[in-house]
Amino acid sequence: MKKEITVTINGEKRTAEVEPRMLLVHFIREQLLMTGTHIGCDTSNCGACTILVNGKSIKSCTMLAVQADGKEIITVEGLATTQGLHPIQEGFHLNHGLHCGYCTPGMMMRAVELLENNPNPTEEEIRWGIAGNLCRCTGYNNIVKAIQYAGAKMRGEQLPSTEPEFV
Amino acid sequence: MIPAPFDYAAPNTLAEAFALLEQHGDDAKILAGGHSLIPMMKLRFASPAFLVDINNIPGLSYIREEDGYLRIGAMAREADLDHSELIRSRYPIFTDASKLIADPQVRNMGTIGGNIAHGDAANDHPAVMLAMRAEVVISSAEGQRTVPIDEFFYGFYMTAVQQNEILTEIRIPIPPAGTGNAYHKLERKVGDYATAGVAVQITVDGKGFCTYAGIGLTNVNPTPMRAARSEEALLGQKMTEEAIAEAARLAAEDCNPSDDLRGDEEYKRAMVGVLTRRMIHKALERARR
Lengths: 167, 289
Fold this sequence. Notes:
The complex is a heterodimer. By secondary structure, chain A is of the alpha+beta class.
């Protein structure tokens, strides 16, 4: 009953046998042992498990691992390169876009696709764009700022100083 | 939550999919976007023994105008509506609806065909399709048949699609000049099912008389519901404030909402009235453009 699937995850090809009922998020966390993708609500509400499948942000708790066969997956582990953090990671870091951090991987993966589709979003477009991701700590303001920072950096614009001011 | 065990196939052609449906009979279920089915399987409300995943079948996700119809392939995603220039410029009712359906990630997966084939009166596209008098194309190994949207919804989660069939296309007659349409649902929070939702399409002639009225209601009846008396009240009438108020009153009177966490019956009826009035106005505004 197990099916063989092959996925390319963060650029690396992986082949494995899975039960058809295995959810993609469980496959990533428990079989590929990449635990950056979180499970929050497990009901496709909270967005903590958001990853990119063929460039589209999806909730990996509501996709079967067998559905990912032949697909290209990017998780939060795939954002940083040897050159350093991804602009969205830098944005979250510098703007304090997280408190507990649980929603952060999903929030960032969603933001990556949002900026891909709309490189210069308004604040309203950002807020609608992350409507499928819940954060229970930040009140979203710094998350919005983090995404604005990443957008500006990816557009090659002059960045506002985010260094804390010590008096 | 993990679904009960099942077997799975992802055929590359409709012919193979029909063969699998034939072979597995009532044990089989079609997997489209999966954002209604997989949650139901995780909760064990559904435990099909076999899933036929139709995501790998090419040629089912178009959105185009052809032969007098707007044709939407069953596997077109909600996000495809968001990104379609044709939809944005000519069919604003879909932009109204897709913005209110779940959230961006769910819209990347959820399909228009699945939203209708699920047969849930809480889904948003059924009311839109009722307002636009869509036809549903249903395919099987024997060929194709076309079912008017009014004959599509049989009951709770029951539709005209039979076990050996697959919904493959939705066809909407291209509305004539002088047409406007709009959809809105009242929701408690982003991504919620409708407390009440109303879809309206209106055509007015050069003198301001109504020549077409389509009004569909979301989640205020066991099945997606046409507000038939409201439509009749508008047809042939000058679109005055009184005529609109009467159509709204009839929609509120004729719907059959039930009390639940989203509101009691009285409240939902009142909201159907308010939304019907507002959506008629919005449709008229768009018709004038």
